Structures
1.
Amino acid sequence: MSTEAGPQPADDAVQAALLLAVDPVGLGGAVLRAPAGPARDAWLAVLRAGLPAASPWRRLPLGVPDSRLLGGLDLSATLAAGRPVAERGILAEADRGIIVAAMAERLEAATAARIAAVMDSGQVAVQRDGLSDNLPSRFALVALDEGVAPEEVAPASLRARLAFHLDLTGLRLPALAAEPILAARALLPDVEAGDDLPEAMCGAAASLGIDDLRAPLLALRAARAAAALAGRARVTKEDAELAARLVLAPRATMVPTEESAEPPPEPPPPPDDQSEQKEPDRGPDPKELQEMLVAAAQAALPSGLLEALQLREAARRRSATDGKAGARRNAARRGRPVGTRAGQLRSGDRLALVETLRNAAPWQAVRRRENPHGPPIRVRKEDIRLRRFRHKAGTTAIFVVDASGSSALHRLAEAKGAVEMLLADCYVRRDQVAVVAFRGRGADVLLPPTPSLVRAKRSLAGLPGGGPTPLAAGIDAAAAIATEAARRGRTPLLVLLTDGRANIARDGTPGRPAAEEDALSAAVPIRNAGIPALLVDTAPRPHPFAKRIAEAMGARYVPLPAADAGRLSTAVAAARPAG
């Protein structure tokens, strides 16, 4: 497909399914970002139809225990036999087949790490008859990502190993009566890629800001699979372009800039006695091939994709420290199941029945000999396993609005509109919102933390403007609300909208130097407490002191002239701790 004609996302998605059917283990799999619906079902149907009839197809449920994932004790057989009987796990059962992971955006990092380790080694260790053994486990993983927020994505350890990252939202896949691609699978080992293509793939990946070496290697595998699918024994330009669109484009983090490259040196003239001989055919220049691949990848980038990827990466970096901000909390009785623990069964605790029986099963023969007249299954207190849960702590978004004269003269009305859009987003997430306004000699809490969108909008509608800028007072008021929210088990998020022109000190006296010093000292505790923060500069031109405040707070800095309300909402979503 020519890049000038423009690739069609639906056609490329179908091509990805076919390529994965040709080389499932080599390509690793795919991330399908889409809700359950016809598009996702159609893509999976194309993939399954292209596989050999005997290929395993396994579902990986959310919260799968390690014993079922990797293999462990066969509970029913062990209880019946009175001795340990091992069973194969999902990863071993799916050897040379496909594993479909439901709700991959909620997959625990530890589970993802175990799957990634098995994908790298191609085998899974199991215990059989008291001895350690390795079973082959070569499979492709299809991660069904149903996340709606930028930070809700499949684990990075799996995304890096899956060749295709597809967004099927809103797509209608063309009907395709696929058949098992046996000829292409047989031809694949003999397909040649040429010596220049690996170098060009690596160069294209670097130009697109991709720092993972797996990406060009997966793209090279995709190009070879495309050639095999077309019945060719050598990769062509079209195969390489398709691979760049499908593998490199979704991983791009920057738009490559045109570099003024010096022209290649002229080749030396041939000897006189060979001047009339015909020059041998030369392959494509590696630089030209790299530029062609970059252009093919750029043609597949939707509008705004790179910015969304950068914000999503910022959200993932924040999620790595979610324990510090309290975004996720362990609990004994509610939340998402995250495993089991040994403990005493008390009122209100949740018994993990299957895991308890697994611990008791190997000892049944011994316990029956000790007491032949006891119950059929003997469970002791040391066998008890209780369920562990993790729940997402609710977020309290604190909007701190500069209502001073300087800000009002600039764009206070526009700031109100942006905040209203952000408040609506918080309402959809069931977050609490609070509004603090500062002007004159101090700050006022216009709205204490509440889930009511109507009250939040009403507080903004009556927000007056004018007067000096007591920036330190506004930050202090927000910090007090954030501290109280954290004490109540919620995760605070501070959004400060100001032009940065502080001119009222903490004690209410005018003077820019003292006001700026107080504002900086008020900002530092926000950073020290690990409170996620976003500073929106509402001045017509970015103000240097606003950047200093953002740095002191550890906040993301966004100048409002360069960000409309939609982009600002995305930035707040990136600043929000991942749960």
2.
Amino acid sequence: MARNIILKENTINCLLETSVEKFGACPALSMALEPPLTYNDLFRSVSAMAAMLKKQDVSKGDKIAILGENSPNWGIACLASMRIGAIVVPILPDFPESDIHHIINDSEAKILFTTQKQMEKVLGIQDHKLQTVITLDDFSAETDVLSIEPISQFIEKARSFFRQIPDRMGLKSTAVNEDDVASIIYTSGTSGHSKAVMLTHKNFITNVLTTSNHVLEIHPEWTFLSILPLSHTYEFTLGFLFPLLNGARIVYVGKTPTPSVLEKICKVEKPQVIPAVPLIMEKIYKKKVLAAFEKKFVLKLISKVPGVKIKIYRKIRDKLVEFFGGQLEIMAIGGAAINREAETFLKKSGFPYLIGYGLTESAPLLAGGPQGDETIAVGSTGKPIPGVEIKIVDPDPRTGIGEIHARGANIMKGYYKNPQATRETVDAEGWLHTGDLGHFDKFNNLYISGRSKNMILMANGENIYPEAIEDKINSCMHVAESLVIEDNGRLEAWVYLDYDLIDEETKSRSQQQKLEYIDELLLRLKDTINPQLSSFAQLTRFVEHKEPFQKTATSKIKRYLYQH
């Protein structure tokens, strides 16, 4: 596919203005099951709020933090801030209080947009530069520490003030350029070392334009369902800017996207696109697909007849598409590696999906699709996106696996207040050292083997990629998630089990018998997995981990918390 959407300027402001001109009366943003704001409504609110922020002495380059769950008001606050050249600092709602305080203080934010759910994490903040806290959900509170204002009150004052301004078409006196920083995003990576990534307007816009023109084609009447945090680049770029550029409608779930919640909302909203992380599809695969084969003996038996399994897969696919509202055109999966067995089902059944790969530092997409390319293989992330160069550095002569380096207009400006880390990550020629390991196949599909920091070097000199072993373990019905670690020269697997399934299978047994069942299950897992591994990658034991592993916003396990 190849389209030709062009913007006069590579700025988020220009994107919004262009979309309003083309799609003004079309629906833009809404909470699920609620009436939407049109593009015209959105622009009026953004312009009024931008004017009010400027009146409150927010200048170009000032920082505005947003800590809250996804909502139309989140998007309005973000776009209004960027409109006057302020820098948005999005904060993941799942961050602990200490991290939130650090981000607000380190960024020197002047304004904070937040919600009632997050307010408790903010009230104890010390030594801050906040002038005002505005609640996105209209929550009001009295405090001696912070000045708090509900957003409806703020917008009402903003509109009154805005009506008095001669130039209402967007505060043209504020010049925002493509190389200006649009956002500073504090990551919470798997290594535990948080960095503040500075992304420019051009970084975001080039990524969005490339995606729209070369990777995935969408239409103005389509609906995007937003279930991932807007404070992460994956959802912000591909689940917010991307649909806005194309005149689509964005619907926010407003609560934890459990299967029952998703089914209810999708039945009404009927989304065509859902950006998701692999964990969502992997859970659905196990519950809807594997469970059907495991529980029904006849189904399991006839599926071995040539051609029958594909027919069964396609029937299950049809039910899954119906579960998501019946009009799903694409499930965009990224943020972490998807389980190979689950993806094999998606591919063979014809389920509409697309895999992507990227980093916060690349705004985020580096590789993915393109849509309709039949040479994209299971296990790969597809092709490098146009405009992005990717090379494999110091590849292993046996496997071709080396570190992935990337270069393009979407690569970050650098790390905020950390020039040394910037120099270590982006070299003098502009190559981003991703820290990921991978290789290409003959069709130029990129495969990710894991993080270079996660690679385990055994005493015999063999390189072990724990993510590849975990992928096999996670395919097992009784495993929810797993972590492979090295302990005194030996490999072991920590597994968090599917306790709902285990409870169902052991409901007539005593507590002691349930514990014995789990011990037997761990031994069976070892006997199942080890024959699939090389002799040097054998697991010495499987250890039950009785609670979910702590994860990043895109559901990657924070490995540093569990290393010896």
3.
Amino acid sequence: MKSLKTVFAMMIALVLMLGTVSASACTAIYVGSDLTEDGSTLFARSEDYSNSYAKVMYVSPAGEYKAGEEYIGCYGFTYVWPKDSYSFTTFSDDNWEGSQNICPDCGETHKHNPYGAAGTNEMGVSMSATETLYCSVDAVYDLDPFTDIGIEEAEITTVVLSQAATAKEGVEILLGIYDSVGCNNGSGIFIADNTETWYIENLTGTQYVAVKLSSSVAFANPNQNVIGLIDLDDTENVIASANLIAIAKQAGTFVGNEEENQIDYQASYNGEEGVSSRMVDALNFMYGTTDKTAETITPADYTISNVDENGSIVPFHSNIALTHKYDVSDIVAYYHIPSIGKAGNTENHIFQIFSEDSKADTVEWVSMDHGGYSPFVPFLPMLTSDTEACYKASCAPAAFVTEEPTEGWYYKTTGRIYTEEGRKTVDGFKVLPENWEKSLYWTMDALSNAVESGKFTEEQIAEVNAKMAELQNLCYDAYDTLMAAAAGDDAVTMCTMTSATTAFNVHQEALKLLEGIQ
């Protein structure tokens, strides 16, 4: 992957020219295999929720969930496992022993995997979920509201990766749940294997669209739905809920051609949604411009469609024309855009999927915390039996205090307190938990907040940026080592060790940057 090193510094310089800071939120990107240097399919997402909100990463072993057992999620969804689970890589909000097994999302202590976010199972099915979407049209939502017992995005990866042997089966499992109990919120979801990539959007309780993406389409998704005009007769590449058109017609929001079985999903279900600053920055990055604004961007600039100007069915396409063929370094640079890579990132992941059928056809690149200050470490997930200890170090939550601490690691920030007058935002300090330095998440959180809260001097910030670039190049070297190990003897042991060693080195180098800073 020589090109990764040669373009990395140039791409980072470019993205620093783009972007304005916006509220924490997830941002995805997809680039089809015709548009990449090595012919791989690339899709990625930053998982955003809150600054100093820990994640762990691990391998869920085969049989972790047993046939006939009931899985209880965070928010009312339950699921009886039809068969023993496959093994899969996954994330979790930290509800492990360091937090006394208390889930930071629902406050419960029962066994569950909150916000698994992304992963790949032993069968080679990969997915990225928890890209939250919203319905801006009350008339539609009132007819098809979210359901209390529906599946919440926090549970989607765990359920699908536990059970799906192919991407298509994963789609069928998820849509079957939507049809039976609905969903608890809106989502944009990727499900892929080495033969195809599906993208699914739902904006209301039981209505959805799933599309098989073409190899020639590219798009960005910063919490905005991107499926536009679709022809539902394209049954090979589109699966939609039965009442998709009927609900929009009943709401009086339908845009499309009912006779041709075509609906503009974005216009019909989300036509009042505006354009976020992250969409502006993402499109400027992908179009290679700096002049797009929220006022000039229209849905035609970012939506995908399988209908051409004559109304005929064609492969899914967008109007985004990339300035060059992408590789992983371009996606890494995407997550250095200031509005996209930021303190609210909990983790970031890139999937690089090749068409050949092998245990090395899927690469999962993982960055913990701030995408701009945390290198992406490569894994071959089907050849990974465990993750390095720093990914699994569990800690208590961070604490917010209004008086400056006399010990421990902390940084200046604002927080919310409750008084007799109500909730107030006040200046204070976020204090990292005991043993934070054992965790890769918390170490990268300490580093990024040291930069952004003024703990580092300008000279030290330059040193941090140089070290991050150096470590990213180390990760690119690790990719080459992984690919060689995948073809050798004892591939699982060697690939697991390569990724673990790379993560360990990233962790130790980040700790060195933090030494002496308080």
4.
Amino acid sequence: MIRTHDCGAIRRKELGERVKVAGWIRFSRDHGGVLFFDLADCNGNTQLVFDPEAMNDITEIEQMDRTLRSFGRESVIEATGVVRERVPGTEDPRNPTGEVEVLIEKVRSLNSSKQIPFEVAEQKNSLLPGEDLRLKYRYLDLRRPQMVGNLRFRHRFLSCARQFFDSQGFLEVETPCLTKSTPEGARDFLVPSRTIPGHFYALPQSPQLYKQLLMIGGIDKYYQIARCFRDEDSRSDRQPEFTQLDIEMSFVEEKDVQGMIENMLAHVWACVFGTELTIPFPRVSLNDAISKYGTDAPDVRFGLELVDVTSIVKGVSYEVFKKIINKSGIVICLNLKASLLSSSLSEANALGRKEVDRLIEWAKIQGMGGLTWMRATEEGLSSNIVKYFSGEVRAKLIDAMKVELGDLLLFLGGSEMQTRRAGGALRVKLAKDIGLVNGKRHEFVWVVDCPMFKKDPVTGRLEPFHHPFVRPARGEIDPDEDMSAVGGLSYDLCLDGVEIGSGSIRIHDPSVQRKVFGLLGMSDEEIESKFSFFLEALGYGAPPHGGIALGVDRLISILLGCESIRDVIAFPKNKRFQSLLDGSPARVEESKLAELQLLSLAEEKSDKGDLEIK
């Protein structure tokens, strides 16, 4: 090693020692001929000082001065010197090395640096450059302490998870990245085969089939930090390549898989945060999640639960509600308790009329006709629409919504799904606006009792609610029954209102699996073409099994409070799924296409009129 200490390791215990450090020059300062340098690496930074009065040879002083002044920002240097205390009053309590400095005796350049396109040093109140610039120069962005900290946290989290699974007898097994293209819910990335022209591999959307095959192979307990690939539309919490913490277990029920994940997270929590995680996590049915929280990924850190008041307001003379209910719509209500409101919003500790008007406009942007409100005063419920509600109806609303003095009732009405979705967005907006999530601890929740199927709203065809490998709750499917009523043994894990994991107990009976494929519209020929290998494997004594996959990037970004998962990935793609660092995706030479025989295949199709070459 060309250094004895990293830049974050030197403390008072090293006083008087001769050390050798190496790193990047972040800052330099000249105080009357005494030169100071902040030398940094991924572990921290140390102050170096060149003090001419500490040297005797004038020639050495002049040479050292010239050398040090030639170093620019982000130059890489190696310095040898003695650790000494900083001058009283110049200590930096924010820096772990802030009580000491290294008096330079020798220095040499390891590499120079061009002028950097943006500041990588952490500075108070400094603004980050645009994300595209950061991604183009990601290797510089990674030098920022925050980025180093994000990757260090990610490493620590996964390291602790590995420790836990090892202690529970799991085997870490790698599954293939060149696989068969099978329908799993998203578009595949395809890889052409050179040795078998016209044939393609697919990059795995998940290790789903292979981890089930491991269970058939008797592995019993499997896990993997798995790379997955999906050609999906861009979102802040999506990347075309991402990482899953993937597990599968044999001879288990739902509670066993859920309990294993809870215990793993509790172990990681203790290792990473040094605090105890409360387990088991609460369970909420999918129907309750949608009706109470307006989403299948509820944030349970605060109240503001939605209440369906359609039956209460049915028959009132308020024309807006009458039209909605007559069209089979619903009316939901949210009680913004006076006790939750910030005193900064108004002197009366309640949302003023201007704030309510802004909420009405916000509701219109969400596609709703608007928003209706009532406030609880000493005289009872008050608003410009109260006259349309009888005393009996108002009393029922007060009872159903547990109304107290100062509370604000907010009503939304319309078609069921749109209204519940808007209600879910409203409760999250209010929670953020009035700070209900500030300082709150993270809260996990399981969403259970999910259906097997859902219907495409356009075609009416059945689609899997999760994926086609979920075992029916009753273990079997009657083709004559209502498919919308068939429950599946699947479950989602949510954290702070974001789904971070999805799992299920799998179908292990090949006849049931074949039925499910058929219900999803696959012909016998298609089933054989895409899944014959899997169905055959199920026929060789497949054990009951189940598992789950957690989205590592999404989970880590939530725990670190990042706005985008790109901040917890070393080399992510941008919003258009481009790598600005290396320019991918990019065109390739025709010689490479010819080697893969893609050009000849395209020309052959063009001759048949199937494809036009441009």
